[in-house]
């Protein structure tokens, strides 16, 4: 991509902040799913835990990508 120096730096900083907020969001959702799993006994708890774990993993990969590759 052909950004000017200031535009590229601003883009990278914004990408890192968005990635950090998404990681925090996914961790909060994971905590809520864990609490819900203790309160509500259901067959779909395992799949919700899996989706929550996948979301946290994707958020971590996105953060690493935005720090090192962009």
Automatic annotation (TrEMBL):
<dbReference type="InterPro" id="IPR043716">
    <property type="entry name" value="DUF5657"/>
</dbReference>
<keyword id="KW-1133">Transmembrane helix</keyword>
<dbReference type="Pfam" id="PF18901">
    <property type="entry name" value="DUF5657"/>
</dbReference>
<keyword id="KW-0812">Transmembrane</keyword>
<keyword id="KW-0472">Membrane</keyword>
<protein>
    <submittedName>
        <fullName>Uncharacterized protein</fullName>
    </submittedName>
</protein>
<feature type="transmembrane region" description="Helical">
    <location>
        <begin position="6"/>
        <end position="28"/>
    </location>
</feature>
<feature type="transmembrane region" description="Helical">
    <location>
        <begin position="48"/>
        <end position="69"/>
    </location>
</feature>
């Amino acid at each position: 991509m052909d950004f000017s120096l200031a535009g590229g730096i601003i883009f990278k900083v914004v990408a890192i902040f968005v990635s950090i907020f998404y990681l925090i969001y996914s961790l909060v959702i994971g905590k809520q799913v864990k609490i819900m799993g203790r309160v509500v006994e259901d067959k779909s708890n395992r799949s919700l835990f899996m989706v929550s774990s996948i979301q946290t993993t994707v958020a971590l990969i996105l953060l690493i990508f935005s720090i090192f590759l962009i």
